[in-house]
Amino acid sequence: MEIKVDLHTHTVASGHAYSTLSENARAATSKGIKLLGMTDHGPSMPGAPHLYHFGNLAIIPEELYGVKILPGVEANIINHEGELDIPIHYLAQMKLVLVGLHVICYPGGTSEENTQAYIKAMNNPYTDMMVHPGRPEFELDLERIAHMSAQLNIPVEINNSSLSREKKGAWGNCRRFARYMLQYKGPIILGSDAHFTDRVGEFSHALDLIHEVGISEQQILNTSTTRVLDYLTNRRKNRSNTSSIQK
Ligand SMILES: [Zn+2]
Ligand SMILES: [Zn+2]
Fold first, then answer.
1. What's the pTM?
2. Domain total of the chain
3. Distance, CA 246 to ligand 2 centroid (Å)?
4. Cα of 10 from ligand 2 centre, angstroms
5. CA of residue 6 to ligand 2 center, whole Å
6. Sign of dihedral through CA atoms 127, 130, 131, 135?
7. CA–CA gap between residue 128 and residue 106 (Å, rounded)
8. Most-buried pick from 115, 119, 127, 177 (CB within 10 A)?
């Protein structure tokens, strides 16, 4: 299985990541990645960039070192209503919006509250993809999330960093989640969640899990650049159809 797209990477702008976009793009080239998401953390995370960072993403070239760049954000869910930490005006301009739960940015809650928050964020028309539900910090109903992913056609991530040694306890959750995804057939993305350039395009743990659970290439969106770009284009088209109906 060849993964040609890494949708989840961080740059120095995130505050606790250590490489520049140029360094990440160069690393992506050397790993055979054709499409790279630049998804720095949303502004409610300590050290994350100011909204001005997100308002200026249009200056980033479409391609660097032969890799297409998708500038965007990894937005934070900030409450049980599933609200995000970036105004719609900014999200509407972005080429890629990832959404997830993070310590400090989200108050925590019961499994029901966390799952409701996550699912409400999945229903946000500006959300493109959901990230790392398998992280152990917040309890979630992983079966409901897998079911919603299939119903809404919203890709959910299997996060390689969660499975690396630093995040003990993620394997059990991610394995259960992957099995539910196999059962309900929702679209999956693999994300490196690189916070340093050497991790860009690194999916070895996620691929081990995918193979173990028996998920096919077809179910993984980022095995094809075209499928990812088509998905993002359609998502934006549906969004503008919805808003023209509302007018
Ligand atoms: Zn981070
Ligand atoms: Zn994250």
1. 0.96
2. 1
3. 32
4. 10
5. 14
6. positive
7. 20
8. 177
